[in-house]
TrEMBL record:
Protein name per Swiss-Prot or TrEMBL: Cysteine--tRNA ligase
Oligomer status and interactors: Monomer.
Stated family: Belongs to the class-I aminoacyl-tRNA synthetase family.
The species this protein was found in: Caloranaerobacter azorensis DSM 13643
BP terms from Gene Ontology: cysteinyl-tRNA aminoacylation
Motif annotated as 'HIGH' region, chain positions: 29-39
Name of the gene this protein is made from: cysS
Amino acid sequence: MRLYNTLTRTKEEFKPINPNKITMYVCGPTVYNYIHVGNARPLVVFDTLRRYFEYKGYDVDYIVNFTDIDDKMIKKANEEETTVREIADRFIKEYFIDAEGLSLKEETTIHPRATEHISDIIEFIKGLEEKGYAYNVNGNVYFDTTKMKDYGKLSKKNIEELIAGARIEVNQEKRNPTDFALWKKEKLGEPSWDSPWGKGRPGWHIECSVMAKKLLGDTIDIHAGGEDLQFPHHENEIAQSESLNGKPFANYWLHNAMVNVDGQKMSKSNLNFFTVREISREFDLEVLRFFILSAHYRSPINFSKELVEQAKNGLDRLYNGKRNLEHLLGISKDEELSDNDKKVINDIDRFKEKFISSMEDDLNTADAISALFELVRYANTNINTESPKEIVKKAYDTLIELSGILGILSKKEEIVDEEIIKLIEERNRARRERNYQLADKIRDELKEKGIILEDTKEGTKWRRI
């Protein structure tokens, strides 16, 4: 597999540190509000990469952190006259609701919170101070970027460019404009913890370095997030971690492009964002996941409800293909394969090969989805009621296997009344023709979908469980 490494600006063959295990750290949300579509993109993209690694047989240690202490959290708590902890708890709970809708694999995701690692953060900063990379000014501790010879290597800028092009906080305490806070002195009304430098709280960048080291090790395989995090957040993580540990922080840096609205980055600060919760009121969130994966992760996405509607129509076509194959599975028979049947099986394998090849090429989910559409179109044309069961099962299993990697086509569908009536008529026809095996299959299929049949003198009646 080849992945585009932001650090080297090239596609590189992916080689994990451990041949059987992959360590991944994805920068998660600051939990002071509902996540928006821009937040959802890295969550969906890198969850899909994790799914693909697991499909290939790797054990994946996967972290998405929660930033639960920062200026935005404090501002929100003050506005609502509550505590930062209450704000964090509330929106972490809401996060998991949205995560379930987006089909994120939360059962195998580690979610550390910054406030759970205060003692680790303090020890980390002490280590930097002892090595001469950090300095204390009246209870505020800063990282000295001039001590890091290759500071700027991720964003590919030198110190002068960073000073000129970045929004650098004006602070007379700092030795250099690009120095950044590791520990912030206590202010009235803010949460604080005891430390060797007095009461205070951690800066933003330090938490990810500390939690990655604590939970995954000094060097990890992949660090990922949105491209807006390259500088200063990820640049500063590299500076902290590599200065303390004397080792590379991450071997591969992956960044997804932004979600735009009218050509402008979607963000809460720009007041042009749509929350995932808002989208869920109009669309199943599987549609949003499909929309996100329909573009290559390094290409910007322009968001609109019209484009999401188009994604819904595309996903519906895949579901229709799935339903057609499920129906054919119920009526197809075990028969010997003809030469043409064997060709169909080989063609199905080629669609799978295209899907895998696309995923291997820097997680090209857009082309992988195209392979699924081609598979469904091919199945609709070449597989019918006369096809042997082996062929139908091959197409169905391949569709389910590959769509599972993308995290789609797994929702339990609500069967509609018209479909129920159609299946009952088909079952009655099978009974008249004494095809009791097919009749029983249809009954069982309906039962799996929550529909119970009752054969009465007045005909077959049905009810939902």
